[in-house]
Input
Amino acid sequence: GDIGQGFRSDVQTLSLQSGAVAGLAIFGSRQEHDLTLLSLSYGHMLGGVVGKDHWYRGNWELRGEFFGGAQVSPSRDWVVGLTPHLRYDFATGTRWIPYADAGAGVSATGIGHPDLSGTFEFNLQANTGVHWFLRDNFALTFEGGYLHLSCAGINSPNLGLNGVKAMAGATWFF
Output
């Protein structure tokens, strides 16, 4: 169908985004960890349009994300991660397609004490965003969300890294 009416069940996505994380000293964190990130993700729709006669009409999408970047404050260090996400793309009938997603994965980082315990950490993410379709198969993507890194109590300390992220990039649909 037309853009904004929902995706076919065989649609796949490829996204490249960059952005930043503004660190927050909350939920036990002692420091504000500011990061820069680059993200590459691949997605696949999990079926056709659901909720066809409702305001929440849209598609479920399973995505895999690889991200990497650097902590820029309070010190310089590295971070990489691999995260599966479950996303819901709303079918609005327009070229603006909002979405919400959540993911949980694994990370490796050089960021350590006082908030993180070592190289291996888990990551949790919750995001909202919008695709702005410039062509039938290409959209600019804007996203805001929450990022948490911690070892889930495997080691000590387990205070965690918390931040609000802003990302922008491009998504191809094929």
In short: The chain has no helices and eight strands. The radius of gyration is 17 Å. Residues 33 and 75 are 8 Å apart (CA to CA).
